[in-house]
Amino acid sequence: MAETVKYVDDEHKSIFLKLLNEQRLEGEHCDIAVVVEDVKFRAHRCVLAACSNYFKKLFKKHEVDNSSVIEIDFIRSDIFEEVLNYMYTAKISVKKKDVNLMMSSGQILGIRFLDKLCSQKRDLSSEEKEKFPYDIVKMALPPEAQLAADSE
Questions:
Q1: Could you tell me if residue 30 is inside a domain?
Q2: CA–CA distances in Å: residue 51 to residues 15, 23, 139
């Protein structure tokens, strides 16, 4: 039996995300538009469904054609923009005053990372919860986002 040789491209994940995000920002190959507070966000259904249980269920339940527009009325457009950026970059940036709103919006959308942060918050003592909205989220952010949060 012939021996199999396997190779792993450690950069593939980050390059893949980077290229998908570039396509999204340029409107290339986007097959869905999400409208939030009259702001239109172009995206790829496969990315939304892979990152969000809300969108996964929505796309399974309703047949969506390539020119589809979905309207969402339960989230602010600036918060959705950050959630969408997270889906394409694995990085999230949020103003201190909006951390709880970001986490609850992420939980509603079924974003695993943000849902995990909400679960961590539930397990904290009252004293820890007072610090939670900023300190815990900041610790969970990638280093670049931590630096950005510190500069605010």
A1: yes
A2: 17, 17, 21
Side-by-side strand order, sheet with 68-72: 39-43, 32-36, 68-72
Q: Is the pTM of this model over 0.85?
A: no
pLDDT tens, position by position, 4-50: 999 999 999 999 999 999 999 999 999 999 999 999 999 999 999 99
In eight-state DSSP terms, residue 142 is -
In a domain, 90, yes or no: yes
Domain count within the chain? 1
Please check whether residue 83 is in contact with residue 112, taking contact to mean a CB–CB distance below 8 angstroms. no
Q: How far, in Å, CA of 57 to CA of 72, rounded?
A: 14
Q: Is residue 1 situated within a structural domain?
A: no
CATH number at residue 45: 3.30.710.10
Pairing state of beta strands 39-43 and 32-36?
A: antiparallel
86-104 average pLDDT score = 87
Q: What confidence tier does 139 reach under pLDDT thresholds 50, 70, 90?
A: very low
On whether the CB atoms of residues 148 and 93 are closer than 8 A, the answer is yes
Domain span at 49? 12-150
Q: Spell out where the chain has E strands.
A: 32-36, 39-43, 68-72
